[in-house]
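Allow me, if you will, to draw on your knowledge of protein folds for a short while. The matter concerns a single protein, recorded as an amino acid sequence and a row of backbone structure tokens. Could you please explain, in whatever detail you think fit, how the structure tokens follow from the sequence? I remain grateful for any guidance, and I place the record below:

…
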Amino acid sequence: MSTEVRVPTLGESVSEATVATWFKKPGDAVAVDEMLCELETDKVTVEVPSPVAGTLSEIVANEGDTVGVDALLAQVSEGDAPEKAEPEAPKEDGPKEQQEATNVSGEPEGEPAEKGEAKGDTEDAPSAKKLMAENDLKEGDVKGTGKDGRVMKEDVLKALNAPKKAETSKPAARGPVSSDDADREERVKMTRLRQTIARRLKEAQNTAAMLTTYNEVDMTAVMELRNEYKALFEKKHGVKLGFMSFFTKACVHALKEVPDVNAEIDGDHVVYKNYVHMGVAVGTPSGLVVPVIRNADSMGFAEIEKSIAEMGVKARDGKLGMADMQGGSFTISNGGVYGSLMSSPILNPPQSGILGMHKIQERPMAINGKVEIRPMMYLALSYDHRIVDGKGAVTFLVRVKEALEDPRRLLMDL
């Protein structure tokens, strides 16, 4: 018996994937739940296991093919491969059925021929024909919605509007390259994840009224507190005490005072969220992903650190699921781990705020009239000015700064 291997459910709002890698080839023996192939969606990588033990008899979707949900990927024959030739017998009937279904002219009878004949006997509306001629449109450029596929004036107007939208999203053509340079270039197709990153970042710039405000924070208090308790913290909780838990708690504290930064626009409504699902941007070899720490506002330092560590491992191993990256209400991006001193983070739609952390660098600062060397970090808050006013954005960033420079504020809710 032959068992079909189909594309699994890919998650909310994901309807197709690209076949990235086949781990097996036709004729290979496979075990139950052994990985057959890897699918790449615009958000995560999905591994497809074998539903039965047997032999991979046929690969239907090759590497690089785009497949939809529930599309056929392969056939697995249970048991020995020679005994499984019988299920393919029905395919022999296909040509006979096609021969029986041919008409006098030798062409198969079916929907395409009927559509063609119907279109040939149908006269388009005169106003539509005139409008098509004026705009150099051919018959195939317009889909008719009238009786028997007749093209109406409304169809032409719709077709005229469609190309304009396509042109705005079409990337600019690359300039000419000399033959010497062309020989030293390599053209590689963008992965789905990289295409999605590019599209979403550009959408954020085109849709949101994005603005960035900056401040700096003296990390002395946080670093001293961390150094004092990191050994005890790790011994009790089994996880290292990092800076991300301090920043997460500080942001949660500030979001309570400035809820606009934790909101999003839905049509002509603003949705305020009485929870904080904190997105933490993580760089991986395949691109930037943003796993979400759900209900971060109800977590302690240890829970936050454990969640971040778990998500970081899953991100590096490509094991993040759809649920791990959905529903975020605010995002923290730490460019400081790569040495960034200053940057303007781009919003993660539909969120209205993202905090950019940067490199901790010792700088001379004026403290009580004296120059002291302090570990300083620049902070950047990018926000959607359609929801968040400048006052709210500055207030948020100041509250984060105050909480980090005096962590006792977090305990007393100040």
Q: What stands out?
A: The two ends are 68 Å apart (CA to CA). DSSP finds eleven helices and 19 strands in the chain.
